[in-house]
Design goal:
alpha+beta, Jelly Rolls, seven-stranded antiparallel sheet, four-stranded antiparallel sheet, 7 helices
Length: about 270
Amino acid sequence: MTITHPDLRSGYALDDAARRHFDDNGFVKLPGVLDPRTIAAYEKEITSKVIELNTQHLPLEERDTYGKAFLQVSNLWQHSDLVREFVFSPRLARIAAELLGTDGVRLYHDQALYKEPGGGITPWHADQYYWPLATDRTVTVWIPLQETPAEMGPLAFAAGSHRFEHGRDLPISDESERALQQALAERNFPHFQTPYRLGEVSYHLGWTFHHAAPNRSAIPRRVMTVIYMDADITVAHPVNDNQRSDLRTWMPGAEIGAVPDTPLNPVLYRAG
């Protein structure tokens, strides 16, 4: 595969302060990871595929809280060679491996998250509730495809919450919003919510609790994400129906206790 935009394949100088911030807080925001021209080159195709593949057609007012949060379309890389270039970026994958402290990373899946104008909150949750994986060496890169000021609902984190085990049994829902908002506040986890400049991205661990405010702007908040896992991670016994569904959908044919080396889970970066 030939990647046409150099900053998708070149290295990124990840400094010690960024690594420490990630280890201590469970997330990090990194400036200038992608050139705005690179984002512009892929945004149109990503948005086109979101429109084509989206299955949510109810008006906002008729949806539940999860449905109001965003339009969600996964594994766009399977439907477009151009999106595949973006998702398979060695630069983005190498940053993920370096933050996790692993030799390499493989793809779990990608996910476009488009919060429509008037779209509601993204409730507090931790992603790894959904993932039947044996360790916590998982990370998501959150890539806004436009400038994302506060009124658009940028992703926000509870700093240090990746070590907080309360609430890990909650799917994203009204219940997770109520319970986690209270529990995180009671334990004084700092709330980190700032705008994203174009080209700035964040990485967060699977157990880091995060949420987002409503989109109060007049345009969609367009975001592309890629979920990475340690290249040598193994599949764990699913502990809820969502994990059983994820195993069938995103790691088809993978066996419990084995590395999920499936066609949907290629290694995207390996050191050396």
